[in-house]
Specification:
With 213 residues, the chain is an alpha/beta fold. The protein has a single domain, classed as Rossmann fold, CATH 3.40.50. Helices cover 28% and strands 26% of the residues. The chain is built from 6 helices and 9 strands, in the order H-H-E-E-H-E-H-E-H-E-E-H-E-E-E. The longest helix is centred in the first third of the chain and has 13 residues. 45% of the residues are buried.
Length: 213
């Protein structure tokens, strides 16, 4: 089966069949070649229904979780989106398919360099990259319409909440190191309106307003 066929099957069996219907998310996941973002030894597993290791102890999330988080953001065209945890760059590419203004922060130089190279090779040459502490966000371009965090925090980082626009949406896994709740946070003035989506397990978000290394 070709990668294209596997991608179509992934969206049919892992995404749409589990209730993810947002047309922009579905379109992006049909288009973006997940296999391009993995180490060569794992390419054959690119469209499998589970997370996969990359380097630096990080992972590329299960396709369903990627789709769920993308849908929960409710991105509309021209939203400014901040991604915390570039990782492989796969989620970054999906975000860029849904909006023109994407900023992404990664703490591991090796991951950031590889993700930037892969994304540029695929034609995503207008994404903004930063090496740094993701728990502090990227204040230079704030506020953002949407923020997505692809690692788990013990609590919602204050800096990220402050960098949201009014009525902006933040999606983040919050909890202990071994189990979290995926939360949607909507900014209402200085108050956060929070909803739990589901249980999940993510790698820890390391930084000043996250977990200690």
């Amino acid at each position: 089966m070709s990668f294209k066929s596997q991608r179509v099957a992934m969206v049919r069996d892992q995404i749409k069949s589990r209730g993810i219907k947002n047309a922009d998310v579905v379109r992006a996941m049909l288009k973006v070649e997940r296999d391009k973002f993995l180490p060569q030894t794992l390419v054959s597993c690119a469209y499998s229904d589970y997370p996969l290791p990359i380097s630096c102890g990080q992972t590329i999330s299960q396709p369903f979780m990627v789709g769920l988080m993308s849908e929960c953001l409710k991105i509309v065209k021209n939203n400014s989106v901040l991604e915390i945890g570039t990782g492989s760059g796969y989620q970054t590419a999906l975000l860029r398919e849904m909006t023109d203004e994407v900023y992404t922060v990664e703490r591991y130089p090796q991951l950031l360099e590889r993700a930037e190279n892969v994304l540029e090779s695929l034609g995503y040459d207008d994404i903004h990259f930063k090496l740094g502490d993701g728990t502090l966000g990227w204040d230079e371009f704030a506020p953002y319409d949407r923020i997505i965090v692809t690692a788990s925090a013990p609590s919602i980082p204050r800096s990220l909440f402050q960098q949201l626009k009014e009525e902006g949406r933040l999606i983040i896994p919050v909890g202990g190191k071994y189990h979290q709740e995926l939360k949607i946070v909507v900014k209402k003035g200085m108050v956060s309106e929070e909803d739990d989506i589901c249980g999940c397990v993510f790698v820890p978000l390391i930084g000043k307003e996250g977990w200690e290394e």
